[in-house]
Each structure stands twice: as structure tokens, then as C-alpha cells.
Amino acid sequence: MKYLIIILFALISCSQDTGSGIEIKNAWIREAPPGATVAALYLEINNNGGEDRIVSINTPVSEIAEIHNTQVAPDGTGKMIKLENVSIQSGELLKFSPGGKHIMLINLKKVLKPGEVYEVTVDFKNSGQKSVNAVVKGFSNSGDENHSGHSMGH
Ligand SMILES: [Cu+2]
User: Fold this and answer.
1) Model's pTM, two decimal places?
2) CATH number of 19-151: 2.60.40.1890, 3.40.50.300, 3.30.420.10, 1.10.274.10?
3) Which of 10, 46, 89, 140 could join 23 in a cystine, given CB atoms 3.0 to 4.6 angstroms apart?
4) pLDDT by residue (tens digit) across 40-49?
5) What spacing in Å lies between the alpha carbon of 42 and ligand 1's midpoint?
């Protein structure tokens, strides 16, 4: 019995080991109809390791991926600001979500249809490359109608 418990513990430890403490989850891309040149990618990065920094982001669907922040001016219009060298503190949950920080996929190579899944790779300064699957969601079911004007402002 003791032997079995040890094996179970080893299995649990294994499955929870993310290598560096960085975990990327809830990744999704907003659909891009024919003719669109940009799309927004959203995800969450949970850092259970030491302080780290995002070096670059790559996807198979665009030539460029930039980190942007949306700032709403007093007149209500949204403006996007490019962020460089985004750091993530130890214990931080960094969220990219509609109306705030997002990853802008620029020079799209293809049309993005709801339900499609693409592998996104984030390159961290200390933790190296981490990949996650991002699902494409349509405008109607992404649950953020209030902010759609901001994130589509490109
Ligand atoms: Cu943007």
C-alpha cells in the first residue's frame, strides 16, 4: 500500500511540473474575416517561478505579434500603445483580455475562422519557450461586446 502511494505521488508531481513555473492558459484569438490584416490574441500567464520577461511571441498565422495596451481617452476613443519588454513578477497572473493588454497579430497570413486552433509560442527570457493552443472565437460568442470597439481599433 505504501508503495502504491509513493507511485501516485510521483505521478502527481510529474503532471504538475511545468519546468519553470510559467503556465499559459485560456488562450484565444478573435476571428479574422477575409481581408482583415490584424487580429487580437488573448491569454493568461501564471508565474509560479521567479520574475521573468516576455522576449517575443510567435504564431503560425501572422508575421508579427506585438504586445499592446488599450488606453481609453476622455472622449471614449481607444488608443493602442505598444509595450516592450513586458515583465511578469513572481506569483503574478498576467492577463491579456479585451479592453486591456492584448497581443496584436499583424500581417495575417490567413483567414481565422471560429473553432480553429493554432499553437502560440511565448519566448521568456529565463524560462525559454512555452507553447499553448489558442482557439479562434467569433465576435458574437467572445463575451465582450462592450469592449469590441476598443480592441478592433487598429
Ligand atoms: Cu492592438
Assistant:
1) 0.78
2) 2.60.40.1890
3) 46
4) 999 999 999 9
5) 11
